[in-house]
Structure prediction request, 226 residues.
Amino acid sequence: MSLVVLGSGVSPFVRKVRVALAEKGLEYEYEAVNPFAPPPGYREISPLGKIPAFKDGDRTLADSSVICAYLEKRFPTPALYPSDPYDYARALWFEEFMDGGLVPIVGPHVFLALVLKPLMSGGQAPDAATEANAKKVWEEQVTPLLAYLEKQLGDDEWFVGNRLTIADIGVASILVNPRHAGYAPERKRFPKLRAFLDRMWSRPSFKQLIDEDTPVFGKRSARIQD
Ligand SMILES: N[C@@H](CCC(=O)N[C@@H](CS)C(=O)NCC(=O)O)C(=O)O
Prediction:
């Protein structure tokens, strides 16, 4: 068996796949791909040119949700998707809420603006207007989505059912990027969500990736305040 993930630590979608693999106890190779300068032929594996892409021997796939769904069928235990039909759909919903709801806001205005662009321009710090815009977007656009997550989680340990699912992996994977940019759900306003993230991010599956990426992308995470 040879499993390969193609991608980069900049991507929350790549993180989602790598965490799912780790939670299933699967060994894999990791091939670095910069989505803005992909290697020749990359579109044969990932027709939209995006990361992650995935290889299982000579079979290839693209898209984090597709890859995770494939992993579940291919390596069913431990299960990361609920078996109850409604719980199953709810788990997919939380994954989509993050991928399709959070990422399009946080990606450009927070992570790209505060981490990636400065990194690509040789370490120049973001200007005051960029910092102010990120703060405004976080307050006005991201906070209502975090409030929804806080309410949905309630007093439960997991987003769906009574064990780890793709919903938890999706929520915690996506929120690592703002963490790298110095933003996390405020403990005072979102105590349950923040405690959930603390638990998730300290799991070996997450901790290893966060520790790997923090020196490169996550220097601003030291700014996070409770
Ligand atoms: N729905 C895709 C989204 C993947 C995605 O947007 N990846 C970004 C990096 S976070 C990318 O490759 N962007 C480069 C591009 O759009 O050309 C997934 O879940 O894998």
In short: The chain has a mean pLDDT of 97. Residues 180 and 217 are 6 Å apart (CA to CA). Strands lie at 3-7, 29-32, 53-56, 59-62. The first strand starts at residue 3 and ends at 7.
